[in-house]
Amino acid sequence: MDDYENVPIEEYGLAMLRGMGWCPGKPIGARCTQVVELKDVVLRPKGLGLGAESKARKAPAFIAKEEGQLVLGKGAYVCIEQGTHKDLYGQVEGLDDENARVLVRLALSGKIVTVNELFVRLVTPKEYKKKGKLLNNDKYEAYKRKHEQEEEEIKLMPPPSPPPHDRKRHRSEKAPKQRQASSGKKKREFENVRT
């Protein structure tokens, strides 16, 4: 009885197969001619139905060494990527492991909402402080990109050409001879008026 308990279950199964004539690297069965690769079973996320497919999750952004690894747990900072609270930031208040749900306190309103684990993305405290209180982050980013493009276009434009020459010149722009001649006429006119 002690020998039975000391043998791991994997070894017990392999011993049974060897007893039935199986050798490692050979096919199983009388009619099989080739070795069939085993298919690994992938555990489905909790709360995801049989017909549903989980979207490929993005790899988390680069994490600085001093900030450490991001772990989904109480106190972690998250961004909600899907659902009614999309693009809102919050802090994890608790986890519901049975239903694969996360309790999140939203940064803007302070309300606690429950969100599926698949809908949240872990963020660094730096990103949370920077973007957590933005009400309309998408509009802000679009506005920022638009103005950056306009500034680049202005930099690439040639400088404006000077305005066309105006025939009426300002008094200070007149040539010195013209100024003297015109002042002499005024003196003569003034003298004629006095006499």
From TrEMBL:
A Pfam family per the record: G-patch_2
Protein's UniProt name: G-patch domain-containing protein
InterPro entries to which the protein is assigned, alphabetical: G_patch_dom (IPR000467), GPKOW_KOW1 (IPR041993), Spp2-like (IPR045166), Spp2/MOS2_G-patch (IPR026822), Translation_prot_SH3-like_sf (IPR008991)
UniProt organism field: Ornithodoros moubata (Soft tick)
Domain G-patch: 9-55
A biological-process GO annotation: mRNA splicing, via spliceosome
Alphabetically ordered keywords of this record: Nucleus
Highest taxon of source: Eukaryota
